[in-house]
Amino acid sequence: YVCIAMEALDQLLMACHCQSINLFVESFLKMVAKLLESEKPNLQILGTNSFVKFANIEEDTPSYHRSYDFFVSRFSEMCHSSHDDLDVRTKIRMSGIKGLQGVVRKTVNDELQANIWDPQHMDKIVPSLLFNLQHGEEAESRSPSPLQATEKEKESPTELAERCLRELLGRAAYGNIKNAIKPVLIHLDNHSLWEPKIFATCCFRIIMYSIQPQHSHLVIQQLLGHLDANSKSAATVRAGIVEVLSEAAVIAASGSVGPTVLEVFNTLLRQLRLSIDYALTGSYDCAAGVSTKIIKEHEERMFQEAVIKTIGSFASTLPTYQQSEVMVFIMNKVPLPSSQPSIEAGKAGENRNRLTQIMLLKSLLQVSTGFQCSNMLTALPSAFLDRLLSAALMEDAEIRLFVLEILISFIDRHGNRQKFSTISTISDISVLKLKVDKCSRQDTVFMKKHGQHLYRHIYLICKEESNMQAHYEALYSMLMLISIELANEEVMVDLIRLVLAVQEIAQINEDNLTAYNRCALFALGAAYLNLISQLTTVPTFCQHIHEVIQMRQKEAPYLLPEDVFVERPRLSKSLDRLGPEVFFWQSKISEVLGGSGYNSDRLSTPYIPQLTGTQHPGTSRRTGRGGNWSLALHSYGSVKFLCYMWASEEITYETLKKAIVDSVAVEEQERERRRQVVEKFQKAPFEEIAAHCGARATLLQSKLNQIFEITIRPPPSPSGTITAAYGQPQNHSIPVYEMKFPDLCVY
């Protein structure tokens, strides 16, 4: 009888005209509610089917008093059915999902109906759909957009829940995104679904592909806020959130990451610094426990790598100019000796600074890897390069290597980096299949502005004793990439001079380098000059380089990369007794290249590192700790070199206080003097003002007369008198500047 009654009601509902449907709906919904309250599954399903039919009817006149609160609650409850019979449980859950879908369709587009986007409704609808997604056979997103499902898939609560969730999110307007996403985050927290991260990633793929593209940045902001809220959660939870962020950022590339781009990176970098603190203390509340420290360090390292990967994912979605801004932003966060406030003292402070420097430079490397620009002058500001190069002179070998890799990623714009990954003296450069373009005008200007700065840092890095094979490989790649990407004739000459100066470092060994360091520098120079001679295509230059390499192969193979840059380097301790035939000579190179049109005067001048105007003092142990510099020029033989002397100046609290007080007193005196002058001209009689100005004019006239007499008076003749050309005394008329004018005519 119930089935017959509901069928009659359904037919009446379908036959109702739009104008009169409101009179009938209230009775109809009461009957549906009765069925849904029944404990019999068949009646619940029957009531749901009737409600779905009603939901598909479009109404012209809205109902102001109709409420769907009961239906949202009841359908959500059915979605969580735990009936003993699996088939019955599946049917009830699917009915619940269909009911929620009907409620959404009925209310989402009608502002006068109950607002389905209110948190009280979203907190029931979204978790119910996620619950059914979570209990599916495989939690993964099938496609970027909803596709037609087969009959078999329609029987699955998982597929039905996914379609319903996509439809719900697809209808979400700008102001409703937050209410729709918040229950997702809470559900993932409550059910600990961030750690495996598979289901969380699946959910946010569905979300990102379902919402309108211009709203993507709202989801990103929600995730960032949730990451901040979980800053003291387990590292695995935070890593899960960050990896979901990374996935979402890639999908959001087609839309927008949002207007607050730097805020995204600021949040990620803040989390990175917090993680470093957690790893050092071993606890989230800084009360370190010895038993958990190793586990925490391992987990935090995984989290840090996830953050760095996410920073790279975000940056890859940005245009070039914003990538440049992000790199400057990250570099400004790196604590350097030249920026004293960011450096912490003590052993713990040193560890924190070092870890922060490494992690931030890793992040910068991730961003720079995908950075492509045609004009390096505008893409890489001077302040950014200054800070980056100052980090290149730090004692930590790992930090220096990161800086070199970052510079290489900037310079390599044609994908030639991998072709120079191993250092060798190949006889034919054509096998490398290099992609070479003519140096542009912008690149020429860039090298004129920053070239000497780069050369100086390359030279000083070569003098570091802690350099390993990776450092020399990076230096080799950097030299070659500058030669290919940024070099004109002048740059090529400077690079050859630089490499010969590096050879001299190893030859003279004033820095007491190890045998490996010296052999590595010799091998680095040989490999570079071998390739650069083939690039210049000057036969006599190639011949000289080839002769020296052949001589080394016979007499000193330990000076070539094939013997040095191997797992077990073959070195020699008799480097101070080498003959002149195994060295590249500047005089010979300048002679052969000068004959081919290169600047022989510049080639024959030894390279001396210059301290450019953009260099910040205090970047390493070589340049002190910052302060006032006095510059002295010394000469030793034929070589001039710059010596930088430290001028110490004690600054105390009393000094600063006195400077502030004095400046205030001077300002007060100046203000009082101005007031008196203004008051005098406002109140003094005209005669007094005229007399004052006349006196000043007379004084000025006398000073001018003295100046003109000194500068214009002709030199005296030997006889002591000034004579004309014919020997007659010359009568001078009074010059205009010596005439006396009345006071009223003088201003």
Characteristic key phrases:
two-stranded antiparallel ribbon; 62% helix; single chain; 747 residues; 29 helices; mainly alpha; flat
Mean pLDDT score: 81
Radius of gyration: 40 Å
SS elements, strand count: 2
Main sheet strand line-up: 1-2
Task: Tell me, briefly, the overall form.
Answer: flat
Parts with pLDDT < 50 across at least 5 consecutive residues: 137-153, 287-293, 613-649, 716-731
Main location: membrane
Family: Belongs to the EFR3 family.
Keywords: Cell membrane, Cytoplasm, Lipoprotein, Membrane, Palmitate, Phosphoprotein
Pfam family, one: EFR3_ARM
Mind explaining what this structure looks like?
Belongs to the EFR3 family. It is a lipid-anchor. The chain has a two-stranded antiparallel ribbon. It contains 29 helices and two strands. By secondary structure, the protein is mainly α.
Describe, in short, the structure shown.
Among the domains are: 143 residues, no CATH class; 164 residues. It has 29 helices and two strands. Helix 1 packs parallel to helix 3, helix 9 runs parallel beside helix 11 and helix 15 packs across helix 18.
Layout of helices and strands, plus pairs?
Layout: H1 2-15, H2 21-37, H3 41-55, H4 69-79, H5 86-107, H6 119-134, H7 151-154, H8 157-170, H9 177-190, H10 198-210, H11 216-229, H12 235-252, H13 261-281, H14 290-316, H15 320-333, H16 346-369, H17 376-379, H18 382-391, H19 397-411, H20 441-462, H21 469-486, H22 489-508, H23 515-536, H24 539-555, H25 561-564, H26 586-594, H27 600-604, E1 628-636, E2 639-647, H28 653-683, H29 686-712
Antiparallel strand pairs: 1-2
